[in-house]
Amino acid sequence: MFTNPEDQNILAAILHKPELTDWLPALSLAMQQAEQTLLTKAKSKSTRETSFINNLRKLEALQKFLSEFKDLSLSLEAEFCQFWQERQELTSAEKTPDLVQLKTKDLNVQINLHPQWAGFLLHELEDLSHYFEAEVVQALYQAQTPYLENQAYQQIQALWLKIKRLVNTLIQDLIPWRKGPFNLLNQPIDAEWDCGKKWSRLQDLGLDKLLNGKNILDVGCGNGYYMWNMLEQDTPANFILGVEPFEGFTAQFLLAKTIYQTLGGTNLPYLLTLPLAKVPASNKFDVVFNMGVLYHRKDPVIFLEDLGKFLKDKGTLVLETIIVEGDETTCLIPGEKYCGMTNVYFLPSLATLEKWLAMAGYKHLEVKDISVTTSEEQRATPLSSPLSLQDFLDPNNPELTIEGYPRPQRVIILARKN
User: Fold this and answer.
1) Number of domains into which the chain is organized
2) Residue 267 burial by CB count (10 A; 0-12/13-18/19+): exposed, middle or buried?
């Protein structure tokens, strides 16, 4: 057993993917070694690892509450059906819907109760107002009155309050939220990055054709925002695995996944908490995403080579990174900071980046988008760090950072080896 239950979930999922099963022995060994490292650091009171384990315990408690909530809710299915049969003017559903719903409406990852279940179960006007118009809310609230005598219904109300409080506590505990937006059980999470804007640019590339039935690896996936969006495509992927070394982002991902999976969601992404260097290479993936990571690497060409080791022969790397103006001899090496960030090492021109990709073995390159990062896309919010892009641009010349470098502009490029 692993401290992080997601590790066991990954192994179980791969076991049911015949094309990936020969990866299991090496991957399992790497995960066991990471488990020992986690426990050793936690014993030494390392803040990061100790905090992660504490958050896993809170997630375990949340899972327990959600499981009880689900079982009690489904035990009232007959009452649910009767409730809505008497209100057919509000719904056209012919069968009982799933309890939970994943939607990426307006590029906001929303994991909430299905509106019909919410309309029956949630006996609070504020909760109902998230799902229904004002004139409907009051009618539903009054219609629920007879069910308040039901013991299971009473237990559901108490559990719902516990679930909401614990979800809110975890959202606060897991600050800063870098990627979003999310909406978890109607609790909004406005992250520093409005990643929906980047996702829109990716969709314009014909992303459905890249994902359709494919195995996807998202390296440096953060809290999994993009992976949840991948699940909501008209032609979804076969298997989506993220790789993320920072436990805080893993915990954010697990908060969303715990809610969705425990309430009955079945089509799931997975997240492996390891640095890429510790993940055994396996050329089993049709598409590898790597967004906003390359400039944090001290060894960019080797890193690009490592990404390629996970691609099938005709697989595609989707790379998004910061570039600067210049020719193939241009590469900015910032000083102590770049746009307020301390861990930015190399910023190539587009021509230099293409040269790096060629050095790493990629032969077919296609530039899809170049966009200047704006303060509408990256900004400080109550759930992020207090400072963001706008604070690190020169107030007298917004085309420069406060350090005097060109402001960030990002490229999306597709690269294939064959």
Assistant:
1) 2
2) exposed
